[in-house]
């Protein structure tokens, strides 16, 4: 266990935000979960007793008949905003006094940094470069992330859970978002920051970054496993596998979604349903491709003269 | 006709009269100084006891500041910086556990970044010769220069985290649902511009860290399908290192002086203007879409009215 190495990574000034982000995420997940649980409990109670549902004010916070439903922004909201601004300013000042922004040697195109890392918030994308060609990891994936995020309000047809925390009423959408945000985005950033060392090789936390380490890793392509040599054969096999994944995966998702989300399924139009399927399957494809690479050393699935997947 | 002239009733006494009148006048003036001035001074001091009634005050603040519902509402509505707020809000909407305050914190950090950024611009030249030296100068010679640079850097990182957490909260509370779909889209664009702002700033110190981060980042643009010279169908469409999308971003085929200048202009002018406009739309739409989404009363599955 190389504690010094671990400390060097964690205390690198530009890594400090990630070290801070992890407990923050835990805290806010807990905060959201606590409120979602309380709301779900209330929903459960109200569903079992229609009489109570008619009179209840439908929040978990106390409310008495004489109380006003609205309060003045001045001073009740403004003091919160003022307080928040002051606290942020204090945190920022203390942070800026105690920790200096990094400044390396002057830029030198002849001396490559090893590892050469993108800013921390893009390390998830850089980590994807291991598993995908740059045109997918660097261009297609970010575009899909942005378009996918923008599509969310138009493909989520569930009218429940608008304006309050809940889990029971929105299991599918919250589950998918947590998978995308925590697993695919934050966890990848953590891998890119703390695990990837010189040569973008895998170093466990506490393992010394050995700049001379060599890994003998023979990566194969999927067609090689089947002994297919011709370009045409490779292209056809890969095409079948990729298209097959979307068709078969789509069918599995369809079978599950129809059973466990019948109301959403009924509400969704064909366009909404296909967009949801496409983004969900593409999201799931990422960890699958990672597994192919890490466990079976398979580099490409689909090889064509113009692009490889 | 002198008789008719009011000043010349007594032709002979004009001179004497003038002197007399001046004397009398001065006497009157002195008398008025003695009596009026103390009275005015007294009034002035009396007036100072209630400064909110002075013309100066009322010209700035157009209503009283006492603790009445009317004035609490006016305090928000008649102030250009506060009028983005409604006068009244949902009594639970101020609960920190619901909102997390991340949208507001992000906006506050944007203001901090604008302020520190403008100050940093005083000391920075976006040229290969000077950029790195300017940062050294800033760190070692400019009073509070190091603090300024640190605040700018850490506020930028905090802003990225703030945007993510804001988005996370908005998702978990279902606040992107009808009628807020469009505002969620503006928010996604703001996320992209926040990341781009941070990324373009990364190169500006012109050190190894920024240089290689931007090299890694922009190398991906080479691989843009159809638009990059290494991307799928790029070569077939006539893309070379000297005319593809990466060339456009960097103003050259390598990260060099032009890339530094372009980065600087995007960072300090281009993106902040676009982001600020989107923020205006974002805040405006929050109000127009009915204020913040909650905390709303919970809805039961049995109450959903299905179409058809």
How is this structure best described in words?
The complex is a heterodimer of chains A (309) and B (308). Chain A has 309 residues and is mainly α. Chain A contains eleven helices and one strand. Chain A is flat, with a radius of gyration of 25 Å. Helices cover 61% and strands 1% of the residues of chain B. Chain B has 308 residues and is mainly α. Chain B has a domain at 94-291: Up-down Bundle (Cytochrome Bc1 Complex, Chain C). Chain B contains eleven helices and one strand; from the N terminus they run H-H-H-E-H-H-H-H-H-H-H-H. The interface between A and B is large, with 103 and 107 residues. Strand 1 (70-72) of chain A pairs antiparallel with strand 1 (88-90) of chain B.
Short description, anyone?
The complex is a heterodimer of chains A (about 300) and B (about 300). Chain A has about 300 residues and is an all-alpha fold. Chain A has helices spanning about 5-10, 15-50, 50-55, 75-100, 125-130, 135-155, 170-195, 220-225, 230-260, 260-265, 270-295; one strand at about 70.
What are the salient characteristics of this protein?
A: 309 residues, mainly alpha, B: 308 residues, Cytochrome Bc1 Complex, Chain C, disordered N terminus
Topology:
The complex is a heterodimer of chains A (309) and B (308).
Chain A: H1 3-11, H2 16-48, H3 50-55, E1 70-72, H4 73-98, H5 123-128, H6 134-155, H7 171-195, H8 222-225, H9 231-260, H10 262-267, H11 270-296
Helix pairs in contact in A: 6-11, 9-11
Chain B: H1 14-48, H2 55-60, H3 69-77, E1 88-90, H4 96-99, H5 102-121, H6 131-140, H7 145-172, H8 181-203, H9 208-222, H10 245-250, H11 257-288
């Amino acid at each position: 266990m190389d504690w010094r190495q671990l400390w060097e990574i964690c205390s690198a000034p530009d890594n400090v935000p990630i070290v801070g982000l992890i407990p923050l995420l835990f805290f806010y997940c807990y905060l959201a979960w606590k409120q979602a649980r309380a709301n779900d409990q209330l929903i459960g109670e109200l569903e079992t007793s229609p009489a109570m549902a008619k009179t209840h004010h439908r929040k978990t916070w106390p409310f008495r008949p004489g109380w006003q439903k609205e309060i003045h922004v001045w001073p009740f909201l403004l003091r919160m905003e003022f307080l928040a601004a002051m606290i942020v300013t204090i945190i920022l000042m203390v942070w800026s006094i105690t920790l200096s922004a990094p400044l390396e040697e002057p830029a030198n195109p002849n001396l490559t940094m090893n590892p050469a890392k993108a800013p921390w918030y893009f390390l998830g994308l850089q980590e994807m470069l291991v598993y995908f060609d740059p045109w997918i990891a660097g261009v297609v994936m970010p575009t899909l992330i942005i378009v996918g995020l923008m599509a969310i309000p138009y493909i989520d047809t569930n009218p429940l859970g608008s304006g309050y925390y809940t889990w029971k009423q929105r299991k599918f959408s919250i589950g998918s978002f947590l998978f995308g945000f925590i697993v695919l985005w934050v966890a990848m950033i953590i891998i890119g920051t703390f695990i990837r060392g010189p040569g973008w090789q895998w170093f466990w936390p506490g393992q010394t970054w050995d700049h001379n380490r060599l890994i003998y890793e023979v990566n194969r392509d999927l067609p090689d496993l089947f002994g297919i040599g011709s370009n045409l054969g490779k292209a056809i096999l890969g095409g079948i596998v990729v298209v097959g994944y979307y068709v078969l995966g789509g069918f599995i998702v369809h079978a599950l979604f129809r059973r466990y989300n019948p109301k959403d399924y009924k509400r969704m139009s064909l366009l909404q349903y296909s967009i949801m399927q496409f983004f969900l399957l593409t999201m799931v494809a990422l960890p699958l491709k990672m597994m192919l690479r890490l466990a079976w050393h398979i580099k490409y699935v689909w090889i064509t003269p113009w692009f490889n997947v | 006709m002198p008789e008719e002239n009011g000043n010349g009733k007594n032709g002979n006494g004009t001179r004497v009269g003038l002197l007399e009148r001046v004397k009398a006048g001065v006497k009157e003036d002195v008398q008025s100084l003695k009596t009026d001035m103390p009275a005015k001074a007294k009034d002035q001091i009396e007036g100072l006891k209630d400064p909110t009634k002075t013309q100066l005050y009322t010209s700035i603040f157009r209503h009283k500041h006492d603790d009445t519902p009317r004035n609490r509402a006016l305090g928000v509505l008649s102030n250009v910086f506060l009028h983005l707020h409604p006068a009244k809000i949902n009594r639970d909407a101020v609960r920190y556990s619901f909102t997390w305050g991340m949208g507001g914190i992000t906006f506050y950090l944007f203001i901090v970044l604008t302020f520190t950024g403008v100050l940093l611009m005083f000391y920075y030249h976006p040229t290969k010769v000077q950029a790195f030296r300017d940062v050294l100068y800033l760190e070692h010679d400019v009073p509070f220069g190091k603090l300024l640079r640190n605040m700018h850097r850490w506020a930028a990182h905090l802003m990225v985290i703030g945007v993510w957490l804001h988005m996370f909260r908005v998702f978990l509370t279902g606040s992107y649902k009808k009628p807020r779909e469009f505002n969620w889209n503006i928010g996604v664009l703001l996320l992209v511009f926040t990341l781009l702002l941070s990324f373009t700033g990364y190169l500006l110190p012109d050190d190894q860290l920024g240089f290689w981060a931007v090299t890694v980042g922009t190398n991906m643009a080479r691989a843009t399908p159809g638009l990059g010279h290494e991307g799928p169908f790029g070569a077939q469409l006539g893309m070379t290192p000297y005319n593809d999308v990466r060339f456009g971003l960097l103003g050259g085929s390598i990260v060099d002086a032009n890339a530094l200048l372009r980065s600087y202009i995007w960072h300090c002018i281009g993106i902040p203007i676009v982001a600020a406009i989107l923020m205006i739309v974002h805040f405006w739409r929050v109000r127009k879409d009915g204020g913040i989404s909650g905390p709303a009363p919970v809805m039961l599955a049995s109450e959903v009215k299905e179409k058809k």
